[in-house]
Amino acid sequence: MGLHDRTIVTAITPDWVNAGSAKYNLSGETTITTGSITNGSASLTVASAATWKVGHGIRIIGAGTIAGTSTLNGAINSSVTSIGLNSTANFPTSGMARINNERIYYHGKNSTHLLNVLRAYYGTSAASHSNGATVTPMVDLVTTVSAINGSTFTLANAAGVTVSSVDVYHDDTAAILDAFDDAYSAGRPLYIPAGEYNAMDVLFDSKNRVIIKGDGPGRTTLYSIHPEPIFVIDSTTGTSHTVTIENIGYVGSYSGAVNHGIHVKDTGGNGVFNLTFRNLRFNDVGGSAVKTESGANAAFTILLEGLDVDQQPSALGSGIDLWGSNDTTLLRCYVHNVGTNQSAYRVRSGSVTMIGCNGIDGGDTVTWGTFGNVLAEDGTDNYCRVNLIGCNVEAFTNYGIRCKAGSFANFFSTQFIAPASGTVQIGHRELTTFRDTNAGASATLPG
């Protein structure tokens, strides 16, 4: 076969895709029904079984087994986000809980408090609660469908709590991870075919030379169920490196500071590096589209190419938030909208080169780019060296570019388009190089 013989390029046939989907029981569905189940029973009655098949992953809200309850250690008002309990021993590290008629969702705990609490969760209203009120953890039942008879499902696992008319979701998290394990063992890419998939905390831990791809944003789309990350890359037992994720869309749950599209951590301190995220779309994530954490071996050698980000005003994270390294590159990214008082692009340390990046379409007191972990001099070496080449810094309503004291920024052929009114600050002249750059008629350059 010759080097240029076109027969070496073949289409992926529908039969091949369908066989893979069937093997791992991927549902490709995000429709929600309601259902009821009794404690100790594996028989679930649903309002509609139209999109379900035997083998599908299923998540029943609040029907999982709980270890016990606790009580409030002091009265709380309707807005506090750290809730004191007499003990948190019976509570998972993060999850949902009920206080009287209010449901909450929390991210993290210590021995006496639930932390980073989202109030008025799951369609309830925030309220004040008295000292000693019972706090009940709510754990979802996540299992698979073993049999279907009309509107009755037989499940692989029994309920731990009786629930009535609660939401029942397709959950493809386990199916995606099963497919990934097989692909990884065979040294092959993980291919997620066109479809819509509910998933949460899809963890790729201590893996290297990984390719995860879909059929493109708008075709392969992953939806978060709760305000948790959708994809997580970590290094608890070994290094994670050379990871490529491309051609996938992510839709968040609108709320929650850790509701990231892709969350990169280094829990084990083993190092995470050489990450390429390409042609991805992120909508309505409550945290950041891509969030990389700090650490002794913070992620380095990162390329983000063709990321498209659009958040709600309620988002609690920047559009893209990177701890940074000496070799971070963003190419042709576009952040449309971000949360109030957030930044489209946030890089906390190191050198970053941005080429052809665009934003923002609008928003309330939003900043285009913030560089440095904190803006004032704090005695740590979390400075940034920023290079913007051919970027469009537009329609920001707070700042164009903000840099930590001691950082350097260079702008080449970059357009600054200030909003119709207000003062725009883009940096100190003695720290900045401007070449073929238009700062806009209404921009103010201090220094």
Q: Can you tell me about this structure?
A:
The chain is mostly beta strands. The chain has 3 domains: 29-63 and 140-169; 70-138; 170-435, Pectate Lyase C-like (3 Solenoid). 5% of the residues lie in helices and 39% in strands. It is built from 2 helices and 37 strands. The protein has helices at residues 14-24, 173-185; strands spanning 32-37, 43-46, 57-60, 70-71, 83-84, 94-99, 102-107, 113-114, 117-121, 134-138, 141-149, 152-155, 163-170, 190-191, 195-198, 202-205, 208-213, 220-223, 231-234, 240-251, 262-264, 272-283, 290-292, 300-305, 308-310, 320-322, 328-331, 334-335, 343-347, 350-355, 367-371, 384-389, 392-394, 401-403, 408-412, 415-417, 432-435. The strands form 6 sheets. Strands 14, 15, 17, 18, 20, 22, 24, 25, 27, 28, 30, 32, 35 and 37 form a 14-stranded parallel beta sheet that branches. The protein has an 8-stranded parallel beta sheet with strand order 16-19-21-23-26-29-31-34. A 6-stranded antiparallel β-barrel has the order 1-2-12-11-3-13. β11 (141-149) and β12 (152-155) form a beta hairpin.
